[in-house]
């Protein structure tokens, strides 16, 4: 068995573990700080919306275009009078986006780009995108997000309980806010691929959370019939018992996404891969974090407010205090003073001991039958 497997087995059986729930205020503070940073970045920098949401034109040059990205961007901005976004694709062609232009302006820009780049105008592919299409996508995405949230809360409330549904909802909002904020800070373009990625991470974010909740539900069955563990302690055991599984599934999911982001987007220059892979990468990492450090500790906090759980905590602590007192008395060393006190409490008998009357019976009698 590997070391990781041994570690997982020891975590599952409670032989070792880290107290995530006890240190929950630290995790809450870190999450609040990251969320505030994401919100500030979103408010200050804003989202860099793609051409699908703004409308405009996309020009694709022939393969193996020798002009650099910076030079092509300068040519496009001079020809259009608008800001341009240029990406180098894997086959060596350039993808030039210019927002806010119409059909007539697009033909003029295409001709000027062909002259500047030294290629035939017929070799440049031009596509016009209307802003209404991107707006429809955004509206559908918001509708899908709202319906998804409602269904998730209803399902978790039925399958588990409403406190777990609330905790999962908070974790989802946490993950989406961080992902969108990082998009604003990094400056990546928001495209329909980004929207797809955001909707996809919601399922991944819930996966680890539901796994921990299922373990917690199983371990807290008939919890009030015992006095060994509080609800928070059992919640912490649930996190530890599923920790290695959560790490394994997250790492396995992150590896291909990292390949898309750093190799497909960075090396090969595939723009659409950047858009969808960044949202997936950040969302997967944030979802794994929130399921361990946010969702389950929050459930423990909500459950500990119940009168039954408060009574259980008092019983558990009282039993431990009583057991600690007994252990202290049992382990206390015996001193000379204690021995002296014992002697005073039970003094030794001095002088001849009186024999029981039964031992003197029959002495001095003559042998023979009794008459």
TrEMBL record:
Protein name: Protein-export membrane protein SecF
Family, as annotated: Belongs to the SecD/SecF family. SecF subfamily.
Residue stretches of biased makeup (Acidic residues): 334-345
Upper taxonomic lineage: Bacteria, Bacillati, Actinomycetota, Actinomycetes, Kitasatosporales
UniProt GO cellular component terms: plasma membrane
UniProt organism field: Streptomyces griseomycini
Protein role: Part of the Sec protein translocase complex. Interacts with the SecYEG preprotein conducting channel. SecDF uses the proton motive force (PMF) to complete protein translocation after the ATP-dependent function of SecA.
Residue ranges, compositional bias (Basic residues): 360-371
UniProt topology in membrane: Multi-pass membrane protein
InterPro entries assigned: SecD/SecF_arch_bac (IPR022813), SecD/SecF_bac (IPR022645), SecD/SecF_CS (IPR022646), SecD_SecF_C (IPR048634), SecD_SecF_C_bact (IPR055344), SecF_bac (IPR005665)
Transmembrane residue ranges: 26-44, 141-158, 165-188, 194-216, 247-270, 276-300
Predominant subcellular localization, coarse grouping: membrane
Residue ranges annotated for the Protein export membrane protein SecD/SecF C-terminal domain, each copy included: 114-304
Recorded superkingdom: Bacteria
Region (Disordered): 323-371
């Amino acid at each position: 068995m590997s070391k990781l497997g041994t570690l997982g087995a020891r975590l599952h059986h409670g032989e070792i573990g880290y107290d995530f729930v006890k240190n929950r205020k630290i995790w809450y503070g870190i999450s609040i700080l990251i969320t505030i940073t994401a919100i500030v970045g979103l408010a200050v920098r804003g989202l860099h919306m793609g051409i699908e949401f703004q409308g405009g034109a996309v020009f694709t040059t022939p393969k193996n275009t020798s002009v650099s990205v910076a030079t092509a961007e300068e040519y496009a901005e001079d020809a259009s009078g608008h800001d341009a976004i240029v990406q180098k694709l894997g086959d060596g062609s350039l993808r030039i986006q210019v927002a806010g232009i119409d059909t007539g302006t697009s033909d003029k820009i295409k001709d000027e780009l062909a002259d500047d780049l030294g290629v035939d105008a017929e070799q440049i592919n031009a596509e016009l995108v209307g802003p209404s299409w991107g707006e429809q996508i955004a509206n559908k995405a918001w509708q899908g997000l709202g319906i998804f949230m409602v269904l998730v809360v209803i399902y978790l409330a039925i399958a588990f309980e409403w406190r777990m549904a609330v905790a999962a909802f908070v974790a989802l909002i946490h993950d989406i806010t961080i992902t969108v904020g990082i998009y604003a800070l990094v400056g990546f373009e928001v495209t329909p691929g980004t929207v797809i990625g955001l909707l996809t991470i919601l399922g991944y974010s819930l996966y680890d959370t539901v796994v921990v909740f299922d373990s917690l539900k199983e371990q807290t069955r008939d919890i009030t019939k015992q006095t060994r563990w509080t609800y928070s302690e059992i919640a912490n055991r649930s996190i530890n018992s599923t920790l290695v599984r959560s790490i394994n599934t997250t790492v396995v999911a992150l590896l291909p996404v990292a390949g898309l982001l750093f190799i497909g987007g960075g090396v090969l220059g595939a723009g659409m891969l950047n858009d969808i892979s960044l949202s997936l990468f950040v969302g997967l990492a944030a979802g794994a974090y929130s399921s361990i450090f946010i969702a389950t500790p929050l459930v423990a906090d909500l459950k500990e407010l119940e009168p039954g759980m408060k009574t259980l905590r008092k019983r558990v602590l009282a039993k431990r205090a009583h057991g600690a007192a007994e252990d202290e008395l049992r382990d206390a060393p015996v001193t000379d003073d204690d021995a002296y006190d014992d002697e005073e409490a039970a003094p030794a008998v001095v002088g001849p001991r009186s024999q029981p009357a039964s031992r003197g019976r029959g002495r001095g009698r003559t042998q023979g039958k009794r008459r």
